[in-house]
Fold:
Amino acid sequence: MEPSSRNTQLPSFSSAFGSLVPPEQNHSMNKQSDSFFIPSYLKGSIYAQKLGEARNKKNSAQNDCHSAPTSQSSSRSTNKNSANAQTKLAPSHRGMTYDLIEKIPCSENERVPPLPSGWSSDDKQPALEVLSDGFELKLSGQKSDREREHESCAARADYPMPSQGGIYYFEVTILARKKEESSLGIGFSSKKVPLTRLPGWEPESWAYHGDDGNSYSSQITGRTYGPPFGASDTIGCGINFRASTAFFTKNGVDLGVAFREVKGKLYPSVGMKKPGEHIRVNFGQSPFIFDIDGMMKCERCLIENEVKLASTSNLSPPLRETELIQALVLQFLVHDGYVETARAFATEIETEKRALNLDPATVIPGFCIKDDEDATHRQRRIGIRNAVLDGDIDTALKYTNLHFPQVLKDNEQVYFRLRCRRFIEMIRHASEVQNQQPTNGASKKSDKSIDQREDINHVMIMDENQNHTRGKDQPEVEQTLISNAEHTRLLQEAIHYGTELSAEFKDDSRRKVKKALEDAFALIAYQEPSSAEGVAHLLDPSGRIAVAEELNSAILQSLGKSSSAALETLFQQTSVLLDDLREQGGSAAAFLNINDYSKPKMSIS
Structure:
């Protein structure tokens, strides 16, 4: 497990521990194109969250494919001015060579079904003009002889309405049309429906027509539904995939259910008959007239009430719901090593039961928290985990190897994650020291630091046959003003450690390993990594949590115990089940976000 003593080149990389960062901390969303939007009523849903994650991955892949870094020579330049000139380039090189490693192809298919983003320029009749970035349609005044034979001209959106959101809704505003010549049909259809007739007249198409106010369900005969509509009106169309129903709105007023048993892959569709007709669609890129957010909220409340009314009597008899929750919490506390807290909680439960019991002769069952033969292992495990959470990776490695010597040998990924975190903590410590320096003479010190850093980087890119050693313990630095030499020394130690880390895993071809190294080594490219956009979050202490839990789970498994508490397993299983139901579509799971149940509730005083 000891790092290789051979000095090898430390690669240069560009991004930052993507797998450890929550989606909301990924800044690539700020660079997305204006065509990407999420309707307000879908925000907060798992589907919207996955859309954002898919967008981030797509942007990252495109950036990787479009970037074309040039390989730099690994030979050390003797020209000081040349070295300083390199520092003026984008802060992603610092004299280190680029390695092109297993980039995600830009054409990678997204598993998350996209939202409609405009009218399709291909899936329409030629007489219809697509305007305003795909949001407007206009029936031109000129038609070919062949088009005059058609009853109307129709168009569909670029993507079908996704059922994973639970409800899908869009609005169409009529911009230009004479009321006495009303001939619009607004609704939805499958991909195979012809575009030569108004939607609703053909099988697998449904629509609300403006000339008579009737609804048409895959046939020429309509049903009385709502008022006619014309110029300046805004007609909304929505599908509740859980109920398999469709509804329409007019100028913000809900007209009620129009169709039932609506199923299949359906596209927003509109049809026109008279030249000059002109409409604009709102797929969620701007606020809606109708309160679709309120409808979505009501639907979520209905589903949540059903969840609350569900019985737990068959989950773990004879425990009732309250007792089951208490047992899960207690097992979680003991599992994670909070034994004294578990004892206090058990005592509180027993006291509460006695206070509510009216018969003094009744035996009150309680929870007994005992020390067992695993108590020593538990205390050691807690100490190791706390060391990681404190950023003291050396101590965690030392006592893991001492008390659980087989864990890191059997869990190479955990060992690798610890080593990477150790490197990040060294950079973090150097950055803290740098930020404690006095401001007087800052410009002079900054220039000197750049020169020193260039010298350090030259050491990194030389493939010298020297043995690099690092201090066994991270220096304890007083929280006072400290010299620039101390910062440089800490930085040199981090570079030497990174060089050893790179050498140890240089032959590992797994993408996750290469990506983690790429992310960690990105820190060394910046003079002030703690404030550098795109990598500063790496230094956040919250990054220690995932590493600590992964090590804790590995130790538990080595002791023949479950790596997760029963409460965690229940949470994970529920998440997977809800994901499966969402992917199938038409399920109440689309309205549920399990993360909402794990958030602390606001107390009302």
User: Anything to note?
Assistant: The longest strand covers residues 167-176. Residues 1-34, 67-110, 439-482 have pLDDT under 50 and may be disordered. Residues 334 and 340 are 9 Å apart (CA to CA).
